Amino acid sequence: MNPKRRRRDIKGAVFRALLLLSLTVGFVTLATLLVDVFRKGWPYVDTTLFTAPPSIDPTIAGARPAILATIYMGVLLILFTVPIGVGTAIYLEEYADRRRWYNRLLELNIQNLAAVPSIVYGILGLAFIVRGIGLGQVLLAGALILTLLVLPTVIIASREALRAVPDTIRQGGYALGAT
Q: How far apart are the first and last CA of the chain?
């Protein structure tokens, strides 16, 4: 056997062994933590956790308002984001003239907004939506801020999905009456 190949095989075997050891240590640590959390926390899980309001007393404390607010926020987010995001994607893919400067500017801004960190959206939302418009700390303000955060991603994903549709299916849709 070639000495270079033998050395490379030994290095590969050592790398695989170290990789498996690292994975094993990581998964064993994770499993230990999860078992400990479930073992210590399971006695406190009952229907009160999901139906009662928050309380100072941990034996009667619940998370019902937080759970309901999360559900309401998700519904509002979908109601705001899907029509605007998918509609914008359809416009940009099907109707917009790519030679026009304002369409290119819109596409560039959408790409750039997708890369903005969420903390920036949070700070701007606090400054302009919560305090600027005067909505206060309400669910609608949070839904609007999350809509601004998610909208570029929805637009980009919808555009990619529209681009993935083969022309034969698109032409078939036109033949069946799509406009």
A: 67
Model confidence pLDDT, tens digit, residues 30-56: 999 999 999 998 887 888 888 888 888
Q: State the Cα–Cα distance between residues 1 and 80, nearest whole angstrom.
A: 65
Residue bearing tokens 């094993």: 24
Q: Can you give the residue ranges of every domain in the chain?
A: 3-45, 64-175
Return mean pLDDT, the chain. Answer: 90
CATH 1.10.3720.10 fits 64-175, yes or no: yes
pTM assigned to the model? 0.71
The tokens for 127 are 């400054």
**Cβ pair 64, 50 in contact under 8 A:** yes
Matching residue, tokens 């416009």: 91
